[in-house]
Write a structure and sequence with these properties.
By secondary structure, this protein is mainly beta. Helix content is 0%, strand content 44%. The protein has two domains: 364 residues, Methylamine Dehydrogenase, Chain H, CATH 2.130.10; 74 residues, Immunoglobulin-like, CATH 2.60.40. Strands 1, 19, 20, 21, 22 and 23 form a six-stranded mixed beta sheet that branches. The protein has a four-stranded antiparallel beta sheet with strand order 2-30-29-28, with no helix packed on it.
């Protein structure tokens, strides 16, 4: 079922007047190829407060890198892919609850079909190499509430259209689903919803071959919630979904809609889809995030004042504004979207541009305040939770929806607690002498 909501088709470049008055753009660093080239995935904030990401090319082994950058802009090489542990990563890292970074590469590994890797104090290690039977070209990874990792592959598997898999922290992989085309093909990522099930999108397949939205249980039962039809509702989703505070899922298509240039949509867990915005011209899109102000943010690798990409904002009501247009010297082609750091600012990368044309890392501040982020975002009573933040110095009091928790460790960038007895699902709050910070999302207490 689709509900259409038509909005004015004004060009995004005409929306620049809506720029937030407190906006400040900073180009933090330019890649020089020794530390990698061509970052095209979103950043992730680690427990140390720094940001981490991957580059597709160059580095010491010419197979891409994992890099680290401080909020002040100090860029360093964290690891270099050597082929056996993966190569040419184009996917976002995840900061896991064990303090390590995990991710996937679409190439490399034992069979050269891609790998799942872990970066810890012991270095870079491949956890699993895909052999085509269990899929090829993994595209994304997440840590679920059960402590295992879940992800998708873009191709191969039983029918050649990709798979959904689960992986234990020790590296044991189980295929949960093989896409057959009718239920989608070329999956783009997963998220775990509030109901414990996983939701995602496929870029093609479905009843009209324009892509699908699906739900899959942890046991592997897949339901196709929606098949895109092209003209009215959009087609060819370009990224995974984001679960909004209202419980619906938001996403972007790369084609279709009233101007056949793509759409921004929302869909509820029952499969009712609403078109929120029709892009008037193709811009090339990345995954959406929802920030602490309730609005959604993303990037277009084309468009903007100079035609070299932009950062844009869309309200839940469908009003779109350009926040920054890249001009080449400060970066070009932002393929990876943005994340919101715990200081309230947005951070991202550009695939090209910068001092040597190898890409950049940037920060965009729009006046949003600091917050804390739980890692993981759900857990049972007694389970360990890392609370990420900025400037978490001095005495603190932590509550889970009002229930006090005992702090077991603390640094300026992370506080370690256990989910307290009697806690209920809701916001985490950290109270310090300077004030109280709330979590960006509600923590879900599992039974």
């Amino acid at each position: 079922m689709i509900v259409l909501r038509w909005v004015p088709l004004a060009l995004l470049s005409c929306c620049a007047a809506a720029i937030a008055p407190a906006q400040t753009f900073t180009s933090l660093a330019s890649f020089d190829q020794t530390d990698g080239s061509g970052p095209n995935a979103a950043l992730v904030q680690g427990l140390d407060g720094n940001f981490y990401g991957t580059t597709e090319y160059f580095g010491p082994n010419a197979l891409g890198t994992i890099f680290r950058i401080t909020p002040a802009g100090v860029l360093a090489l964290a690891a270099a892919f050597n082929g056996a542990d993966g190569a040419n990563s184009t996917s976002t890292l995840i900061a896991a609850s064990d303090g390590s970074l995990y991710g996937v590469t679409g190439e490399g590994g034992t069979h050269r079909n891609g790998a799942v890797f872990r970066l810890s104090n012991q270095g870079l290690q491949a956890l699993h190499s895909f052999d085509a039977i269990d899929g090829r070209e993994p595209d994304a990874l997440l840590e679920a509430a059960d402590g295992n990792f879940y992800g998708v592959t873009f191709a191969d598997g039983a029918y050649g259209y990709g798979t959904i898999f689960t992986l234990t922290p020790s590296g044991t992989l189980t295929t949960l689903h093989n896409f057959d085309g009718y239920d989608g093909q070329w999956a783009l990522g997963l998220l775990q919803g509030r109901d414990g099930n996983f939701y995602g999108a496929t870029s093609e397949g479905g009843t009209a071959n324009y892509g699908t939205i699906f739900k899959i249980t942890p046991q592997g039962v897949l339901t196709t919630l929606y098949s895109f039809q092209g003209k009215l509702d959009g087609g060819y989703p370009v990224a995974g979904l984001v679960e909004a505070t209202g419980g619906e899922f938001w996403g972007i298509t790369g084609a279709g809609g009233s101007s056949v240039s793509g759409t921004i949509f929302r869909i509820n867990p029952q499969g009712t889809l609403t078109v929120v915005y029709n892009f008037p011209t193709f811009l090339g899109y990345s995954a959406l995030i929802q920030a602490t102000d309730g609005n959604f943010y993303s990037t277009g690798y084309e468009g903007g004042t100079y035609g070299q990409g932009e950062v844009f904002e869309i309200t839940p009501g469908g009003e779109v504004s350009i926040l920054h247009s890249f001009n080449g010297s400060d970066g070009a082609s932002p393929l990876g979207g943005v994340i919101q750091g715990t200081d309230g600012a947005f951070y991202g990368t550009t695939y090209t541009g910068g001092t040597l044309g190898a890409g950049t890392i940037f920060r965009l501040s729009t006046g949003l305040g600091a917050f804390v982020r739980p890692l993981p975002t759900s857990g049972k009573v007694g389970s360990t939770v890392q609370i990420l933040g900025t400037g978490l110095a001095g005495p603190a009091r932590v509550t889970f929806n009002g229930t006090p928790a005992v702090i077991t460790a603390a640094t300026p960038s992370a506080i370690t607690v256990a989910v307290p007895a009697g806690a209920t699902s809701g916001k985490i709050r950290v109270t310090q002498p300077g004030g109280t910070l709330s979590s960006n999302i509600a923590f879900r207490v599992l039974q």
